[in-house]
UniProtKB/TrEMBL annotation, chain A:
Its main location: membrane. It is a multi-pass membrane protein. It is found in: Cell membrane. The keyword Cell membrane applies. Keywords: Amino-acid transport, Cell membrane, Membrane, Transmembrane, Transmembrane helix, Transport. Belongs to the binding-protein-dependent transport system permease family. LivHM subfamily. The keyword Lipid biosynthesis does not apply. InterPro entries: ABC_transp_permease, BCAA_transport_permease. The chain crosses the membrane at residues 6-27, 34-51, 57-80, 92-115, 135-156, 177-204, 261-281. It comes from the Bacteria. It comes from Arenibacterium halophilum. This is Branched-chain amino acid ABC transporter permease.
TrEMBL record, chain B:
InterPro entries: AAA+_ATPase (IPR003593), ABC_transporter-like_ATP-bd (IPR003439), ABC_transporter-like_CS (IPR017871), BCAA_Transport_ATP-bd_LivF (IPR052156), P-loop_NTPase (IPR027417). The keyword Nucleotide-binding applies. SUPFAM superfamilies: P-loop containing nucleoside triphosphate hydrolases. It comes from Arenibacterium halophilum. Pfam families: ABC_tran. Keywords: Amino-acid transport, ATP-binding, Nucleotide-binding, Transport. This is ATP-binding cassette domain-containing protein.
Amino acid sequence: MTGTLIIGLSIAMMLFLLAAGLTIIFGMLGVINFAHGVLYMVGGFIAVEVVNQTGNFWLSLLVAPLAVAALSALLEILLLRPLYDRDHVEQLLMTFGIILVLDEVVRTVWGLGYHDIPLPGSLSGAIPVFDSDVAVYRLFLIGAGLIAGLGLFALIEWTKLGIVLRGAMTHPAMVRSLGIPVSTIRTIVFALGGGLAALAGTIAAPLIPIQVGMGFGIIVDCFIVVILGGLGNIRGAIAAALLLGLVRAFGQQYFPEWIELSTYLVLMIVLLWRPQGLFTFSKGRKA
Amino acid sequence: MLTLRNADACYGAAQALHQVSLSAGPGDVLALAGRNGAGKSTALKVLAGHLALRSGTLEFDGKTLANPTPEMMSHLGVAYVPEDRQVFPSLSVRENLVISTVAHPRPRGGWTIDRVFELFPRLKERRRAFGQELSGGEQQMLAIGRALLCQPRLLLLDEPTEGLAPVVVAAVVEAIREIVAEKAGIIIVEQNFTVPEALATSFSVMDTGRIAWNGTKAEYMENRRDVMSLLSGLGSDAQPQPT
Ligand SMILES: Nc1ncnc2c1ncn2[C@@H]1O[C@H](COP(=O)(O)OP(=O)(O)O)[C@@H](O)[C@H]1O
Ligand SMILES: [Mg+2]
């Protein structure tokens, strides 16, 4: 029971790190970024490379997100910025293009096989929590996700950058009239989202095989989280990630054959019945 | 300070401004009136950098601005209160003011959040409320306060008293007096000259995208009845003398 709960929470954290980026990118740029899973994958590969070169997992936790944030900024400036005034379909196609190109680059550099990195020594092993033995790394994952999530929350709620972000989500033209270059804000948001995705990829690297295509499965779950939470709604994404993470963990334990089907059913029902998301309330505010 | 010369501007294929010229310097209050659809808001959008010119020039302190953007106009000291106010719904009243200080950290013109709260005490009471919870009058005060925190040298007000209760109109007029006392310029757009009459130093009337009449305060006072009838659409036969 406790073990399943911990696994559910750790899945929820991964989903949240990815979905938070997706949802703020949508809120700010109006772009549904299909390439988000690829940024997660690139983060994983960079982490593998850093650990292979230096043997230092902690360094990879710093390098991979920063490198992918820089890459994301470049992608936004070069490929997305020229398309904002065009049809949404063109932006979608561009993010698809980014997937194809980055997949190909990764395949050329690291090959098609899978890579893995060892659990960092200080985080291996298990400790007893109530009735179960729980892998220390799972707890670390939850902690890291919590810290990143709280950091993001603090950034959005309590800093001037956060005020600008929330303002620009609804009235970008007015933000410009206050002297703030919204195009730069968009780049920052895309870089932030990419960095969070890469952080998720790095944290996942000791647990799952790092390989081309690894971003695909998880990104589908992330879209579910974003839709359940309400597009552009970060608090909703937190709630939806928790819901889906726990459903995944407990479903895997108790009714594995139904889990996929029921998840997608819920998604379809929400899309038809509450397209604004389960966690968006007309009176409440979006954050 | 800010001069628009022979401006043409379009929305797609539809031309909304024809050869419009306007100008305001420090301490000037230009009242711009005209019927609905005359092009007043469009003229302000051009001055705020939100709409590009098809032809004509926009000059600031004698220099022609080649590609004015809203950011650039803000940094030059042109602050904009749009017709629909554009209060940020998911920011608190306080945050709606703080956001102006991001790009304007120095109180060059001496406007601080506390001073805005002194000017509009109602905003102070409501400082924790979100933009979406405000009444129309509160939104208008907030939009003006937000513009003041950009430390304006020229303030563009698009129908600031539209739909407001008389007490709120009085508060807005009081605010305008205080702003003028700081030697900032103001361009105030209204459907008629009722509210701006006592404040304005010059007057312009727009009709179908053109300047139909303009004059100084003295000229306006002399031709007041003609200008009024021009505004109410009765003056097509008896045009006042353009100057
Ligand atoms: N965003 C827009 N797109 C197309 N046409 C517009 C737009 N805004 C205004 N117009 C048109 O431009 C003309 C002038 O409008 P506007 O400047 O808003 O007038 P006013 O502020 O004097 O009422 C009107 O004919 C109006 O229909
Ligand atoms: Mg108007």
